[in-house]
Every structure is written in structure tokens, then in C-alpha cells.
Amino acid sequence: MNRKAFLLSLLAAGLMAAACGPKAPEPFGACPTPDQVAWQRMEMNMFFHFGPNTFTGAEWGTGTETEDIFNPTDLDCGQWARTARLAGFQGMILTAKHHDGFCLWPSPESRHTVAASPWRDGKGDVLKDFSEACAAEGMKCGVYISPWDRNDPRYGSPEYNGAFVRTLESVLGGTYGPIFEQWFDGACGEGPNGKRQVYDWPLFNETVHRLQPHALIFSDVGTGCRWVGNEEGRAGRTNWSTLEVEGFTPGAGSPSVEVLNSGIPGASFWAAAETDVSIRPGWFWRASETPEVKSVQKLLQIYYESVGRNSLLLLNVPPDTRGRLDPVDSLRLMEFRAALDAIFAEDLAAGAQVSGPSRGRGFDPGRLLDGKYDSYWAMPDGQTTASLEVSLDGEKTFNRVVLQEYIPLGQRVAAFHIDALTPEGWQEIARETTIGCKRIVLTPTVTAQKIRLVIDEALACPTLNGLAIFNDTVYLQ
Fold first, then answer.
1. pLDDT, averaged across the chain
2. What's the Cα-to-Cα distance from 135 to each of 127, 179, 256, rounded to whole Å?
3. Of the candidates 52, 140, 181, which has an alpha carbon nearest to the alpha carbon of residue 104?
4. I want to staple 87 with a disulfide (CB 3.0 to 4.6 A). Which of 116, 240, 333, 356 is the partner?
5. How far apart are CA 284 and CA 51, in angstroms?
6. With b meaning 16 or more CB within 10 Å and e meaning fewer, what string describes 127-150?
7. Is the four-CA dihedral 453, 458, 464, 470 of positive or negative sign?
8. Rounded CA separation 377/388 (Å)
9. What are the pLDDT digits (tens) for 93-147?
């Protein structure tokens, strides 16, 4: 081979290597399914507790309430869905059957249903109205169906598990369209015969997966997503999306609330936390609680401590006895949406440049700012620390830094800190642990030309696909 041919072959090889670039990182540990990724990216869903308790003022009905107690005067699920959409929520979940056993659809497995109520002369179906309203507003539809039934005489006997499966089949079998989340409450109290039921959770879960294969199952142990361990609207400051679930069951057999709140690093199952909380003190509507609807400031705190800590927020907004959302609740939701829009209106990282080490071509630090979900920065295999410098487009005043891990490859970052180059020099402004799908870091208000993101510890090479900077003048810490 002559010299010219040799050089041409080297050039061709170099171009081929450059075109191929380094391989993407291998997935690490338990990873989410595409449905789980899509679910967490929804960020906020709305819960609707509605049923006989709405009319009695109880939180947990006894199951002895007569069916004629349920008689909303102006049911409008379309109003619920429009309000949820305008407030920025993506999905809706209805308590189709709470612990009292009353079914908001004409369940063939029960006589304690809307079919026995005076509402619409017994011909109504709240779940049908609800699912159609979701579809009309582009909202995903979910259902809460409690396995505890304080009305069914079969509860506490071997026959009940089969009856509950048929109950699930009547909801999930297609009549009400696609269901994105099946919410299972682990409560297991006494039935009308004074007995408790031994739930067949494997059978219940298999039924859901068979009928709605894209639905995530919520419970204390997943399998799709997990309870956050409290009803106060607060995910753990450290929050892993992975959990060990073997040997645990929903309810009394679940992991500790501390484990549910923080997850377990490197665990075997992906079950991201869902943070459920009510806009009112109780879960069902009561006129006496209207003055206690949560303030915008409280809702912002909940947002930062749920969505901002790698969790999905499920906010309960209970309809009133008319079957409509209370005007106070609706207005508060619009104020909440306006506050979020104001806070996150301008990304101060726009126009910035990011420099630092990376895995190589195709995984460079600039990927953090390109706004594409499947475009991410990554470090070489085995390198679990890194420092990235973000040069802002001039001096910026800010107090929020938003980070995102590329969770389809697993959750990796265990510790990080952020420095800012201020007129007084480099200063540490935040030190945290996990990132996950989204981490909103609340920092002191600083004016800086640059920030430095330092990954101090990771379970595998870091992979991040988002960084943004904002200045919040709305939330009063």
C-alpha cells in the first residue's frame, strides 16, 4: 500500500469511528418500563373522592348507608376534567368504590350501587361520565377500587376474592376505555360479618395486568408505583425510585413508612413514589372545611416536595353534593397554576454553555440544555463522579435549579452539590442526594455568571438529560 492509500485508509477508519462514537451506557439495576417513564413525566394528576361520604360527611362509611343517600343534584364530570386540564394536571383518578362498598357504576357484583339510588332514576353511571369527560379533555383516566368492602356479606370468606376479581373485570374490561392507573388501598378492616379478608394480591394484580396491560398498579409495594408513606404531600429529600417488594404486601405487610418515603438505592424493583394529598383537611367534601382549603403557598410547598423530589403529585379535589368542584377549590387551582407559570416562565440557562468531561461524542455536556428527553450527557463506564461548569449568558439572579436524570437507564446519582460563581467568588449554594426524574433544588437567591454541578457519588456512571435555572419570587420560604 502506498503512502497516499495508507493515509486515506486511516482517514476512513477515523471517520467511521467518529461516526459510530462511543456506545451508550448499559441500563443500571432496576429500570422503569416505558409506561412508568410516561407516568412519572405526567408530574401532576388529580384525585376525586366522591360517594356516599360526600353526603354523610364521613371519611370512612360504614357500608350500612342506604343507597338513596347518593343523589347529586348537578353532576358534571366535564367540569372536573376542564378544571384539571386548565390547572395543568394530566390524569384523573376516581374513587369508584371506597371502603363502604358503594359502586359509582352499576356493578353486576353488588346491589349497593348507583343503580339502586334515586340519582337519574337508577340509570346513571358516574364512572361512565367520568371516563368520557377524561377522553373529551385529553386526560388519562384512572380508578380507585378498594378491596375492603363493609357492605358485601361475602367479605371475609373465600368467595369474596373471586367476587372482587369480577368487580375489577366489570371496570377494567373495556367498557370504560383505557385505564392508566389502578389505585389499590391496602386497608383491610372488618366486613358486615365481623371478619377480615385475606386478599389474594397476586390474583388481583394479574387481573389488572390481563385487562389493562398499560395500567400502573399503585399500592404500598407497587407494582407500578408506590405510596410515599404519608398523606402530607411530602416525598423524601432522598428519594430512590427503587424498592424491595418480595415478602411484602399492601397494608399491614408493607415496608416501613421511612422506606416508602425514601426508597432503597440499587433495589430490585422500580416503583417510583406517588405523593397523595388532599386540597382540604379531609378526603371527601364537607362545607365546614371550605375555609381550610390549602393556600397557594402550601400547594407550592407540596409541589416542590413531591414533583421536585422525584415523585408524582396526586392532589385530591373532592366534588361537592351537587357533583361539581367547589368554587373555592377551583379558584385555588387556577391560582396555583398561575403561580407555577410565573415561577417557571423563563429558563435562565437558555443560551448557556456547558463544559466538562463526558463519555464522548453523542453524550457531551451540551445535551443537558437541548430540551430533548432522549438526549443526555453521560460519563464513561466506571466513572461515578464529575464536575460540569455552566457559563450563563451574562449575570443571572436565581434560586431554583432543576435537574433531570435519564431514568430509562436507571437511577444513579446518590449525592451532588452546586456551586455558584458570584462577585465574591465560588460559593456552595446547595448540597443534596438523589435526582431521579426531576429534582428542583431550592437555593438561596444568588446572582452569578456561572454555576458548577458536581456529582459527588453515583451507583453507576451518571446520565443526565436536563438542567434549567429559574428565579422564584412567588413562593415565600
1. 95
2. 12, 11, 37
3. 52
4. 333
5. 8
6. bbbbbbbbeebebbbbbbbbbbbb
7. negative
8. 10
9. 999 999 999 999 999 999 999 999 999 999 999 999 999 999 999 999 999 999 9
Give the residue among 10, 24, 120 at the shortest CA–CA distance from 74: 120
**Helices 327-343, 296-306: crossing angle, 10 deg rounding:** 60
Nearest to 366 by CA among 388, 384, 386, 346: 388
Q: Choose among 377, 343, 364: nearest CA to 466.
A: 377
- The C-alpha cell at 477 is 420560604
Q: Are strands 413-422 and 425-432 parallel, antiparallel or unpaired?
A: antiparallel
Q: What is the rounded average pLDDT of the residues 298-315?
A: 98
**In a 3-state reduction of DSSP, which class is residue 117?**
coil
- The distance from CA 115 to its chain's CA centroid, rounded to whole angstroms, is 33
**340: three-class secondary structure by DSSP:** helix
Average pLDDT of the residues in 7-27: 59
Strands 386-405 and 353-355: antiparallel
| 175 grid coordinates | 367498557
User: Strand, helix or coil at 244?
Assistant: coil
Q: Angle, nearest 10°, between helix axes 327-343 and 77-86?
A: 20
Q: Take residue 455 and report the three cell numbers written for it.
A: 456529582
Per-residue pLDDT tens digits for 363-414: 999 999 999 999 999 999 999 999 999 999 999 999 999 999 999 999 999 9
What's the residue count for the chain? 477
Residue with cell 343534584: 73
The answer to whether the peptide bond before residue 223 is cis (omega within 30 degrees of 0) is yes
Confidence band, pLDDT 50/70/90 cuts, at residue 223: confident
19, 250 contact by CB (below 8 A):
no
Please give the single-letter amino acid code of residue 176: Y
CA distance 81 to 319: 12
Q: pLDDT per residue over 34-78, tens digit each?
A: 999 999 999 999 999 999 999 999 999 999 999 999 999 999 999
Helices (H), 57-190: 77-86, 126-136, 158-172
Helices (H), 281-423: 296-306, 327-343
Residue 263 grid coordinates:
426508597
